[in-house]
Amino acid sequence: MNDQTNVETEDLYARPADAVEEPPRTLPGALGRIGPGLIVAAAIVGTGELIATTGLGAQAGFALLWLILVSCVVKVFVQVELGRYAITRGKTTLAAFDDLPGPRLGASWVCWLWLFMMLATQAQIGAMEGVVGQAAHMAFPGASEAMAGAIGAVVPSWGEFLQTREEYVWAALTTIAASALLLSGGYRRIERITTILVAAVTLFTVASVVVLQWTRFRFGWSEVASGFTFALPAGAMGLAFSAFGITGVGATELVAYPYWCLEKGYGRSVGPRPASGDDAGWVGRARGWTRVMQLDAWVSMAVFTVATVAFYFLGAAVLHPQGLDPKGAEMLPTLASMYLGPLEGTPLAPLRGGVRVAFLVGAWAVLFKTLYVATAANGRMTVDFLNVAGVWRPSGDASRERAVKVFCVVYPAIALALYYAIREPLGLVKAGGIAQGLSLPLIAGATIYLVRRDVDPRVGPSRLSAALAWLAFLAIAAVAGYSVYDLARSFAGA
Fold this sequence. Notes:
By secondary structure, the chain is an all-alpha fold.
């Protein structure tokens, strides 16, 4: 099928023999086939970075820079092994987890824990929608008043209500826009849109950090070096655990990555393994496409690590010295001060108005793309969960796509309701981050077990890769264990 429209309607999870393709043999050729990791990067560079990472920098200064870097790098070793399993075995993450030993209720207990974790992360999605609404209101206050007035003309009580909650209308409009965009496109559109937005947000944030060096908030190597003392400030432990769960490849992104790899076509290109006879061709393709996937994962890691560290530097260098903490109703103005404050008293001060608008548009782009990608992934994984649990089995790819689109409407609506009910973005982000952080050791351990049990050693990880995956699991488990202990201690002392 050469027609792009047809490509979007064929079963992207199947591995027919006629879809086999040899992997690229050159680095430029391999770079031309990456994409799933950039979708994951689009999900990563969102609330975790704009809210949790800057909040962590605001509270702890540079002291926890090491944790941010570890969080960004260490989980990629697990991501690569999940991608390897999907490519060589042709299974989605939840289908693989469904084969784990232990109790079952239609699906494996691990699949059920994933479902509870994913539902908890809707709190993060709600935070995104709310902050997007706040950004739009700050950028266009006149439009907010006009919309509230128009609604008040129809329902007076609603107009009065919205006068103090101006972001509610913007949040609803953003939610509708994200759902509408998801209903109109498949993998290719998601990849194109997210690649552009990730590049724009990363460049803008890095440029903002560079500009700091010509302001009163400039920092030196001594401040950066202080971030490698491996300290764990007790007061920032809750947010640190949340940041570890969100920054870098979070639990939801780990589970989602194989779905994007399969939809990109890595598994289809490897093809089904011959039942008997010579399978040297299959082994060669599996190794080749696994190398492409590894390149994809590490390129995306470089992108989101640069963006994450840049956000952390802004929080540590600008907000921490002023004792500012981005939370509550003042969260977005506080975040805006990271970009505006350094311009005071400099030749760039007249540009503050333009920079403010650029920040608000950038904040909208950061959060909108994460809402967009996270919802697309959650819809796919939920339909897969219903399939493995035997609750509902799609009759084909078209049936699966229709079900995915249903959840692309349902999940943003649920998240919006959470924001309306709580209206505390940082608290919502922390709740979702803690749920992801608690799930990470389970996902990492299950991945190592499955790869050792099921993957053909000829296409399995090298000894170094296996050792690094174990190191990632131990680091994830250690941070999670210490954080649970610290949280329990704080509750006991309350």
